[in-house]
């Protein structure tokens, strides 16, 4: 059982301490739980993901992020992954000249502290790619070079399946996916949840993905903090009413 605790987190952009983007976020995610973070554009959802990932552009000005009581903010980026955090970014970067296959094996080695046995690795990778309905030739392409939106998302979920994190933060995993790709990607997330008891922070602007990945909790994110939390029914309400109720309330 793993718990990620975010306590009164305040974050600004690194070169501008005056502009606070996150204004006191409190959130606790444990193994086996899926928390949907929903909110309008610009409310700070990606900032939350980047801050937890340790992106250098974002400065935590106060508050805490703890993984089983360990201070995540004191960890280097690699250490966060080793501790069991997985961050899938809204805009994944290109890694020129590195094939998917090599990239994943390097990442797995970094996270586990030892290289995976080649025989098992090849089998695991093949299995995971088949499950995500990916062409085997994909493994020999360079990371993110010319990937379509759907390929990027599949690649993220492939990474997640192979790295076996404890808590995954998925930022707009649904953006730019057609329904078929959305189903495949969602099935991948659900498979990892079922197999490993993964805890998931699912950041999304739209309720569509929540038909495929069932959240246990829904949090409405407005202006840099959680404005309201509830169960699945809150997502249904948002689908009908949008975010207006929160925005006009001046939260
Ligand atoms: P969301 O993911 O909810 O759409 P973001 O976290 O991307 O929101 O952005 C929240 C706010 O912070 C926006 O007003 C955005 O312009 C600002 N912001 C985010 N990242 C940066 C950055 N690197 N530099 C300057 N402003 C930023
Ligand atoms: Mg505060
Ligand atoms: Mg975003």
Bound molecules: adenosine-5'-diphosphate, magnesium ion
Radius of gyration: 18 Å
Sheet with the most strands?
6 strands, mixed
**Shape call:** globular
Termini separation (Å)? 34 Å
Order of SSEs, N→C? EEEHEEHEEHHEHEHEEEHH
CATH architecture of the domain at 3-92 and 165-248: 3-Layer(aba) Sandwich
CATH class of the domain at 3-92 and 165-248: Alpha Beta
Residue fraction in strands: 25-35%
Low-confidence stretches are none
Count of DSSP H/I helices: 8
Query: What is the CATH fold-level name of the domain at 3-92 and 165-248?
Result: Rossmann fold
| CATH-level-4 superfamily name of the domain at 3-92 and 165-248 | P-loop containing nucleotide triphosphate hydrolases
Total number of β-strand segments? 12
Give your account of this protein's structure:
It is a single chain. The protein has 251 residues and is of the alpha/beta class. The protein has a domain at 3-92 and 165-248: P-loop containing nucleotide triphosphate hydrolases (Rossmann fold), CATH 3.40.50.300. The protein is built from eight helices and twelve strands. The chain has helices at residues 45-53, 77-82, 100-112, 118-131, 149-163, 179-196, 232-241, 244-248; strands at residues 3-13, 16-30, 34-38, 58-67, 70-71, 85-88, 95-99, 142-143, 167-171, 199-204, 217-222, 225-230. The strands form three sheets. The chain has a six-stranded mixed sheet with strand order 6-9-10-3-11-12, with helices on both faces. The protein has a four-stranded antiparallel sheet with strand order 2-1-4-5. It has a two-stranded antiparallel sheet with strand order 7-8. α3 runs parallel beside α5 (149-163) and α5 packs parallel to α6 (179-196). 37% of the residues are buried. The mean pLDDT is 92. The chain binds adenosine-5'-diphosphate and magnesium ion (2 copies). Residues 45-46, 90, 172 line the site of one magnesium ion.
């Amino acid at each position: 059982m793993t718990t990620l605790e975010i306590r009164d987190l305040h974050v600004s952009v690194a070169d501008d301490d005056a502009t606070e983007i996150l204004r006191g976020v409190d959130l606790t995610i444990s193994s086996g739980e899926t928390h949907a973070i929903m909110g309008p554009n610009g409310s700070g959802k990606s900032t939350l993901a980047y801050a937890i990932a340790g992106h250098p552009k974002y400065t935590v000005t106060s508050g805490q992020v703890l993984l089983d009581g360990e201070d995540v903010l004191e960890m280097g980026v690699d250490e966060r992954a080793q501790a069991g955090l997985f961050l899938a970014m809204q805009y994944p970067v290109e890694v020129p000249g590195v094939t998917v296959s090599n990239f994943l094996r390097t990442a797995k080695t970094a996270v586990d502290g030892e290289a995976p046995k080649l025989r098992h690795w090849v089998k695991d990778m093949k299995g995971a790619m088949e499950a995500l309905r990916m062409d085997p030739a994909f493994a020999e392409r360079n990371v993110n070079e010319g990937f379509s939106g759907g390929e990027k998302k599949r690649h993220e979920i492939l990474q997640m399946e192979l790295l076996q994190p404890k808590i995954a933060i998925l930022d707009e995993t649904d953006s730019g996916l057609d329904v078929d790709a959305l189903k495949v990607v969602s099935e991948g997330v659900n498979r990892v949840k079922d197999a490993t008891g993964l805890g998931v922070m699912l950041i999304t602007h739209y309720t569509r993905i929540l038909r495929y990945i069932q959240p246990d909790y829904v949090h409405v994110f407005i202006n840099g903090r959680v404005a309201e939390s509830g169960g699945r029914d809150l997502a249904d309400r948002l689908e009908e009413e949008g975010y207006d109720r929160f925005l006009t309330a001046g939260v």
